[in-house]
Specification:
single chain, Jelly Rolls, 2 domains, 8-stranded antiparallel β-sheet
């Protein structure tokens, strides 16, 4: 199985003449990052262990264990990983895809999909495509089209004032300024800020900021920081108030959410 360094050096999936291919990586690392790049092919990054984050011009996406990140063909993005990593990258000719989002998306994938990716990753990059490979590819594409999006992203607005606001919120997540105060800082009226933010992200200011907190929290909790430290650094008065916000957003408290994500695959493989 290729290790992470292969993603950084001479490996170029766009030069491989296969309709679909998969490569994987297993490695214990503190931190790994790749700067902005793009592929001609569509791609799917399947995360089985560790924490993965991807950033593009229109958002930041968190990919917890047992989820996948969909990346449309030609989409410029950067990525980083941390922890005890096990991940797989699937590269697909764009014309084979018909139903997945036109932008990046975190997807919840089925156990069958994961096993199909593992099977594809066993084939050497330069191996020819046989009839059995086409059959596996057909099922994998069916599973990909059926995958559901998981709302683990922080949408980035396009306009300059709102992008400035997003950058400030990401840099100073514990700042408790009101909507009116943030509007004044970026030279907009409160009403204009609220209306423009809803048009560009589909969210109210409060929901948008909470979504950012969830994304930042998952990054840090995945790096084994404590709930208490994360809560205080994000500006919450206590760990319990942060846990309440997290549960309302994702349906589970942080510890339970991460535990379910970490052990679901292990339980499936032992059954």
């Amino acid at each position: 199985m290729p290790i992470l360094e292969e993603f950084e050096t001479g490996f170029d999936p766009d030069m491989v003449e296969k309709p679909l291919m998969a490569v994987g990586a297993k490695k214990a690392i503190a931190y790994w990052e790749k700067g902005q790049h793009a592929h001609r092919k569509s791609s799917l990054l399947l995360n089985l262990r560790g924490m993965m984050t991807c950033e593009a011009d229109d958002g930041v996406w968190i990919v917890p264990p047992h989820c996948a990140l969909w990346m449309p063909a030609g989409k410029a993005h950067s990525g980083r990983m941390s922890g005890n990593i096990e991940c797989y990258a699937v590269f697909i000719e764009p014309e084979l895809i018909s139903k997945q989002p036109k932008s990046c998306a975190t997807l919840s994938v089925s156990p069958l999909f994961r096993e199909l990716v593992l099977r594809c990753a066993q084939s050497p990059v330069d191996a020819p495509f046989f009839d059995a490979d086409f059959r596996i590819m057909a099922v994998l594409l069916d599973e990909l089209e059926a995958a559901q999006e998981v709302k683990l992203s922080f949408p980035m607005p396009k306009s300059i004032p709102l992008r400035q606001l997003a950058d400030l919120l990401l840099k100073y997540p514990r700042d408790k300024a009101t909507l009116a105060q943030w509007a004044a800082r970026i030279g907009l009226s409160e009403r204009t800020l609220s209306r423009s933010l809803h048009v560009e992200t589909g969210m109210s200011f409060g929901r948008w900021r909470r979504q950012m907190h969830v994304v930042l929290a998952l990054q840090r909790l995945g790096d084994r920081e404590t709930v208490q430290n994360v809560a205080l650094d994000l500006g919450y008065e206590s760990a319990s108030s942060f846990v309440t916000m997290f549960r309302k957003t994702l349906g589970k408290p942080p510890a339970r959410y991460l535990m379910d994500q970490t052990y679901s695959l292990a339980e499936e493989r032992s059954s």
